## 1
Amino acid sequence: MTIGLIDTRCANLASVRFALERAGLDYRTGVAPEELADCDRLILPGVGSARPAMEQLQKSGWAKVLHEDQRPLMGICLGMQLLFSRSAEDEIDCLGLIDGAVEKLPRDAGSVWPHMGWNTLDLQRSDDALVQGIEAGEYVYFVHGFFAPVGPYTVASTTYGAECSAVVRQGHVWGCQFHPERSGAAGAQILKNFAELDA
Amino acid sequence: MLARRIIPCLDVRDGRVVKGVRFRDHEDVGDIVALAARYAKEGADELVFYDIAASARGDTVEPAWISAVSSVIDIPFCVAGGIRSVDDARARLFAGADKISVNSPALETPELIDALAREFGSQCVVLGIDSKTIDGDWRVHQYTGDPAKTQLAGRNTLDWLREGIDRGAGEVVLNCMDQDGVRDGYDIDQLTAARELCPTPLVASGGAGRKDHFKTVFERANVDAALAASVFHKSLIGIGELKSYLIAEGISIRP
């Protein structure tokens, strides 16, 4: 089982690569779809902002390929937000693999923006393969200023000014708003679950 | 509920972790990777590494040790010290750092903050401010890694904090130099004033000596995180026991 790590050239791949190595998982990185053609599943990491990342995915051909691809796919942080139809960040159309839109976290007077730090998970769909071994109330590490509201795709959520999707799934496509690669033992469990889920 | 963060700070010089009192008289306290791994295991929420001499020397932090740290720990970490350009920042982020922190170079060229935020997003751009009371006013200092070169930056601390955020910093670490290394408690007045102006996460630094200092800074200054060095390096306070205490005191903390 080999995980393909999609390199959008604007994301920090190192921390995800190291996390996969700590978990003993085989992976390969690649910019173009053909470089990861023989991988069994895909991770779309993400740091940075929506527009440059989407432009890169279009340029590299991933935006088109992912529409046909049936391999399990997991987006992380911005990578999760790009799975949705649209994002309020830069007001752009995204990959459209999950039906929903990403919004800006409310920036109320007195509240701190962005959402940065360890927050707890509520489980909406505790039977989902990605969250096996994860308890409600588990802390994971978030850094984001935009969010996917809770919807039919929500597996787990967290609260920060709004109810935010923390883990999402639609079909063979999953996403984590938090950073599993920086979320201690709980994050490592989620990466392991993704590697082991039945495809 | 979002937890308040406990952040051990590792001052790095020549590949080792060091700690001084009031930014002076540094002593060696250990190996970078070994200390990072120990703190992550003990429950630290995040780590900050300052190459304290880099800004004053005019060179930059070494990505090699950043990769070494990133490969062993599973919590986020920030690196600081001598980051003068987008390329310097990229090298550190691509080596595995989650955030980069700028201090003296941002005072020399404030536009650096705008450039970093544009390139990498505000979420990984931290503004470090070293502040000391001068004639009853809080004033920014720069080149604090080298006592011989430390100087006033010609800026008022709160004005600089506000400007840094307007330019795109996503987090502020306010190091109150009067308290640094003295273990007499955080500068509640200064941090409270900063909190009122700071719409992004604010990290308190300088003065932690006892467990109740952390409780006080969270309750009174409402900071998002508290950073400390010597109390952790010298094992005066264990991170586990500190967190148990804060949870018992009703502070939102990740166990």
Note: Chain A has a mean pLDDT of 94.
## 2
Amino acid sequence: MKHVIIGAGPAGVVAAETLRKLEPESDITLIGDEPEPPYSRMAIPYYLENKIDAAGTHLRKSADYFEQNNIEVLQSRIDAINTDKKILTPDTGEQINFDKLLIASGSSPVKPPIEGMDLPGVHNCWTLADANQIIDRAKPDAKVVLMGAGFIGCIILESLVSRGVKLTVAEMENRMVPRMMNEQSGTLLKQWCENKGVTVLTSARVSGIEKGSQHPLSVVMSVGGALPADLVICATGVRANIKLCEESDIETKQGILVNEFLQTTHPDIFAAGDVAQGRDFSTGQYSVQAIQPTAVEHARIAATNMTERREHLHRGSINMNVLDTLGLISSSFGDWEGLKGDDSCELGDNDRFRYLNLQFQDDILIGANTLGLTQHIGVLRGLIQSKTRLGKWKNKLANDPTLIMEAYLATVQGQA
Amino acid sequence: MQRSLQIDPGKCTGCLQCEMACSYENEGVFNPARSRIKVFTFHQEGRFVPYTCTQCDEAWCMQACPVDAIVLNAATGSKDILEDVCVGCKVCTIACPFGTVNYNSDTGKVIKCDLCGGDPKCAEACPTQAITYINADETGFDRMRAWAGKSDNQPRVQ
């Protein structure tokens, strides 16, 4: 059996390992298009902060790990897939044939359709190469404009502030991390950042970037005015890398369409991670989640199903995130926006930057947002995923949402 | 034969000796807030429930780690955090459905029970044998593990 994996991120690497474990004899080839050994984008903020060196971002630490596991790692770009002949044509080197293929090509940053995005000094924060460009330009007292206060924008704030830059964040929505946190908590996050000396503009759209006079760049705001900048970092979202499927019979929407086996519309081709439009546990719909735990879940299941013996069902991944914004920790789980009719409870302490919101359907927890909590938050996943009926604990939680751990012990484990 | 922690809440008096022993062993301070085992109190029921990681086979934390900072301890079966590799991203803290991996903002790393390397101080400190360290197949954690299996989304790692 010859397994080929496109993409050397977490999904690709975990799939390769899973395949190796299940099929010691098979050929496994892992293809990535970046020069570095397989690394984790999740670790880039900590690299920017000088907490780790480049090797600290590597998904597997020993230099000969892939060789030891008999996994061939190739560096090249795959722009198209011949699904009839089951052949890949890389940009360098010879054609690669496969018996089973996993597409784990990830996602790429979206550039807003405005003038000036190609000017020198305008960067994404997505690859190690991007990070190195940012490190070069984010000198003390440099003026930096960060476009987008989403997950990536927020998580790199700490590293930018620690580099001593003068930072302005421009976010189109009315709060920070609007796709992860509700209005109360997203607004508290904004206040927190402002207290730390970061200028945060919300409901603020950048209409273009021009060459500046005193500073190299000038960021033009749609509401009028312009921000001088030495460096502009664009973190306005990501999109699944599905272009390689364009000429093929592999169907795509926001991502590559997969069934409950992570199989694409071609029976020998699977997809996993950021590029896959997989089942969402909360909604039952198929959507792109683009988060680490989902990538790994997809990878293990897809790889298992690529082997001849097994059919492992993907019951849906819970969309969840945890984010550290200048030391304030926020998290979201499942259907944090709640259902229509809004059966929820919340507890907030604005002065201490703490907030907790729980969303219910009947007496089952379906989603949550937390701010300023670090202890036992995983149990929110446990409660959502187990669909546990909370019974009398629902009322107790309505009175004091911080009793999540007690509610879990009492209901899921029958401990009280 | 690997051993694991067995917890019998019926025997717990809520004295918190386990939390003291844990924080002293692992953090060098007597401070229940830094303990990896926590005793939850149910006032109305008059019940105390000690709670920590069961070193579950699914190892959600280990699987979710993006930098390979959580490893299986082959001797004890525990899943251990490599502190010098952990970047503090906290993904494991949301991935663990038992809520037993927590972020320590003082160190910028996560912490979880590692069975004290095979000599768990909580069990040693417990005066009522509510916490014992016994052969793995006999523990009462089976129910918890069964639950983990029920909601399992992925093949086991072991």
Note: Chain B touches chain A through 43 residues (CB under 8 Å).
